[in-house]
Design a protein that fits this description.
By secondary structure, the protein is of the alpha+beta class. The protein is built from 2 helices and 11 strands; from the N terminus they run αβββββββββββα.
């Protein structure tokens, strides 16, 4: 008869040990989840208050009034080192300018910003793909090896007119580009 109480006490001791272990692991899991949420909250608040270095900010409410993205400065500009800088504004529901022309075989730097909402910037057939966020300047570098046309759709839903938001990049042979746009300050698709 004494064996039954010993067996029950052994089972009870084993159950209590398992219970303690499960509670301990529950606290460990709860602490890990708490730390993960704390890190996410801290990171979100930190990066909201201080953007990472190397990210260029801009006053989205004053884009057209002064600075790099005024209308006369948009489009393709050939630099003294023969590289091209293309400045664009992505806005509901268009890219300005709607067509840019660049020379083939030349390093091209796209600088894009937005005054209103988040947009996508994609040049089909290339590695150019980024998000355009109001208040920031997105910069993407590429090179077009051959002449041709590339579509440039917005791939980030920006509101009801999103499906009509696209532009194009016209890549010209370097000699043709120089012949058509050599003396001009800005290259344009107008008349082509």
């Amino acid at each position: 008869m004494r064996e039954a109480p010993l067996a029950e006490s052994a089972e009870l001791a084993a159950a209590q040990a398992i219970d303690r272990s499960e509670r301990r692991w529950s606290w460990v899991v709860a602490c890990v989840i708490g730390v993960v949420f704390a890190v996410m909250a801290y990171s979100g608040l930190h990066w909201t208050a201080m953007s990472p270095s190397g990210v260029e900010t801009i006053d989205a409410s004053r884009l057209h009034l002064s600075g790099e993205f005024i209308e006369s400065n948009l489009g393709t500009a050939i630099q003294p080192d023969r590289t091209a800088i293309v400045r664009l504004i992505a806005q509901q529901y268009s890219f300005v300018p709607a067509c840019v022309v660049v020379p083939a075989g030349t390093p091209v730097r796209f600088r894009v910003t937005s005054p209103d909402v988040v947009h996508g910037f994609l040049v089909t057939g290339t590695n150019v793909n980024t998000m355009v966020i109001p208040g920031y300047v997105a910069e993407v570098r590429t090179r077009f090896d051959a002449p041709g046309d590339h579509l440039m759709p917005c791939h980030e839903y920006c509101s009801v007119g999103h499906e009509g938001m696209w532009a194009r990049v016209k890549v010209l042979d370097r000699l043709e580009f120089d012949r058509l746009h050599g003396a001009q300050q800005r290259a344009s698709c107008a008349g082509q």
